[in-house]
Amino acid sequence: MNKASLLSIASYVPEKVLTNLDLEKMVDTSDEWITKRTGIKKRRIAQEEVTSDLGTKAAEVAIARSGISKGDIDAVICATISPDHFCMPSTACKIALNLGLNVGVTAFDISAACTGFIYLLELAKSFVQSGIKKNVLIVGAEKLSSIVDYTDRGTCILFGDGAGAAVVGVSDDNEIIDTHTASDGRYGNLLSTPGCGSVYPANQLTLEKKLNYIHMDGKEVFKVAVQTLTSDVVNILAKNNIKSEEVDFFIPHQANFRIIDAVKNKLEFKDEQCVLTVHKYGNTSSASIPMAMNDAYEDGRIKNGSLLLLDAFGGGFTWGSALLKFGGKDYKATL
């Protein structure tokens, strides 16, 4: 059986910055309140760009850093909850087109909310290990500003736009050690975008009730998230006989600093092990983990062979974790 490795990481964020002070002018909130409750100071907002544009720009860099030619990419999978189009064409198909990939390349989207990148890793790992595919481009891309109600102070303070991408391919070294994904649909109503599917089709009433936007019960999500994320990490570490102190970097989904801090403390990770970007980008759902990973890569922390632990929780509810050794070149070597 082939071994699968994460051969590169990259990200892209749009230029426009939306700060807490900007939000003070838009909704009844304050910089102090947002910072205390979430740890978020600013987030990026796409303007003319759509989700596939963000994903394409991250993917271009990820492919270049992998050392693999575009012609060798045989699958593109995109995780998103803010696709270019309601159902078709898929955002992955548009990214493949934008990249000029071979006609006939496999391309499809998945919807696993904030756990999307973990799901992508599991799929890509399975494709490569089985021999079905050799090099899989995975992209987490979100234009969440398109589904955020900027009159709802409970949600508009949280979300931002951006994309992260990686190439998973065959390698004898630095393999993706393990992945775990799961779900529990009983909690789906606590974090959802109710319209505009078959339950609440797109019509005037749906728009008037703002069912096309993200709806969330923040307190309940917080409770389930901390407990689930902690137990999932404990289980994947125990399964692979790895102690928390052996992990070079813990890269959790960047949803809320209080959630990250609670999980970090329960698992006894040191501050220097934990990668944090929530203050800069807010919650970018499926793009969150690869964006955070890329920040740690570009500042020289993550190197070839670094042991990474990823952990995410999102709407559905979905959750998952991954253990891997980074298989890409050191950042300086790619310049």
List the helices and strands and how they pair.
Elements: E1 4-12, E2 17-19, H1 20-24, H2 31-38, E3 42-44, H3 51-66, E4 75-79, H4 91-99, E5 106-110, H5 116-130, E6 135-143, E7 161-170, E8 176-183, E9 191-192, H6 204-208, E10 215-216, H7 218-239, E11 249-252, H8 257-267, H9 278-281, H10 288-298, E12 307-314, E13 318-325, H11 331-334
Parallel strand pairs: 4-5, 4-6, 11-12
Antiparallel strand pairs: 1-7, 2-3, 6-7, 8-13, 9-10, 12-13
GO biological process, one term: secondary metabolite biosynthetic process
Pfam families: ACP_syn_III (PF08545), ACP_syn_III_C (PF08541)
GO molecular function, one term: 3-oxoacyl-[acyl-carrier-protein] synthase activity
| Straight-line distance between termini | 33 Å
- Average of pLDDT: 94
Could you state the order of secondary-structure elements as H and E? EEHHEHEHEHEEEEHEHEHHHEEH
Major sheet: order of its strands? 1-7-6-4-5
Report the helical percentage: 25-40%
For the sheet with most strands, the description reads:
5 strands, mixed
The CATH homologous superfamily of the largest domain: Thiolase/Chalcone synthase
List the total number of helices.
11
Tally of discrete structural domains: 2
Spans with pLDDT under 50 lasting ≥5 residues? none
CATH C-level class of the largest domain:
Alpha Beta
Structural class: alpha/beta
| Rg over CA atoms | 19 Å
CATH architecture of the largest domain: 3-Layer(aba) Sandwich
Number of strands: 13
Q: Fill in the CATH topology of the largest domain.
A: Peroxisomal Thiolase, Chain A, domain 1
Shape assignment: globular
